[in-house]
Sequence to fold (437 residues):
Amino acid sequence: MKPVKVGLLGLGTVGGGTVNVLQRNAEEIARRAGRGIIISHAAARDINKPRICRTDGIELTENPNGVVTDPDVSIVVELIGGDTLARELVLKAIANGKHVVTANKALIAKHGNEIFSAAQKKGVMVAFEAAVAGGIPIIKAIREGLAGNKIEWLAGIINGTGNFILTEMRDKQRDFDSVLSEAQRLGYAEADPTFDVEGIDAAHKLTILASIAFGIPLQFEKAYTEGISKITREDVDYATELGYSIKHLGVTRRTEKGIELRVHPTLIPKRRLIANVDGVMNAVLVKGDAVGSTLYYGAGAGAEATASAVVADIVDVARVLTTDPGNRVPHLAFQPESLSNVPILPIDEIETSYYLRITASDETGVLANITSILADNDISIDSMLQKEHGKDNTATIIIVTHTTIEKYMNNALEKIHALDVVDGDVVRIRLEHLDAD
Ligand code: NDP
Ligand code: HSE
Fold:
């Protein structure tokens, strides 16, 4: 069989890694795909720039439009990033009958519904394994491996840069900016690193995971997003003392009222495997009704880890190029006409537990005031810790609550904050037990 020709858009971290993996493992990959896979064309902004890969034998261009319309190219691999030019190029590739592989989570989370619909009409595939959790084959695991289950919830550390920053700050007391610079140098961070730090990248990925887990359209604009920039050393230390780790987590859960879709710093019991996932590593915990809890772990960013997922998608596409489009695995796991319109819940309606850190005057009745406000709002306390400051007659009170509804907590926090004896803002971090039942 003739080799399949691939046109690459982007020769940066992931593009370069993809060329290297395809060249190094060409023989094994051809044995798996049933035919050779060659990169015939590649586009970059500046084709004279030094690359991490060899480009001999590849037709290089600074015009990506030429690649997506070239009749020789069967599969377009989009590794440019962003959601403007990338969207145009992907839609043009589809219109020209090309199959598409992409690592671009912003593109899929924001424009996936439009892109999949265009691909469906044209009978081509759009594969996006590398868009979530780098090298971990999480899309395939949920979409195919767990197809017999009703997925109840999933929770994941799905941004490598953020987890790398939190780990280095905790273990080596390094400062935020220097770790972020290192993540950029290592090729982990997004072109705009605020996407990593403020949770936008994780929200893109969670949006995709929720769609394939629950069979709902992609709804990035409804995801609640909070980043890691406000996590302090003090809270990391108190969390450790109480037996928890603080991780930046994406959580999506099916409830009777709708679907929770949220990304935020989260306390997790230290005994959970996922609480011990450090550095650039990612992990996704998926709870299915039949299988129970399953955990997927691996590198969340980086050239070859991500290329591993890109190449797997290219192999998948190469294998099924000639099959009837109706018999392929649907893009979002469920048949497009069977997607459900179950609502995404506003953050006020989600259910979770909380860690609170309150600085207050160390005087009689303060604790009673605070606990009675919590009780009035139906919030029950799980554990509590009080630390004397020894100066200014203030104390730090740490409270861990049982599960409640976020709007009740907001109401209670407003009242606690209004107490004269409370000094400054109350720190609130959500807490998930992530147990199997
Ligand atoms: P890079 O910035 O390293 O690479 C982007 C590439 O796109 C560069 O080669 C650049 O060319 C090229 N490019 C940009 N604009 C144009 C244009 N107008 N015309 C032609 N080429 C262009 O990004 P990454 O490889 O890190 O990321 C690529 C995608 O993969 C993104 O969607 C990212 O979110 C995703 N991703 C990244 C991961 C990672 O670990 N880095 C992991 C998982 C997904 P030039 O080199 O000449 O500037
Ligand atoms: N910037 C992303 C991260 C790349 O750090 O997780 C992988 O998607």
About this structure: Residues 10-15, 43-46, 49, 64, 79-81, 85, 103-104, 130, 134, 187-188, 190-191, 301-302, 306 surround NDP (ligand 1) (CB under 6 Å). The chain has a mean pLDDT of 96.
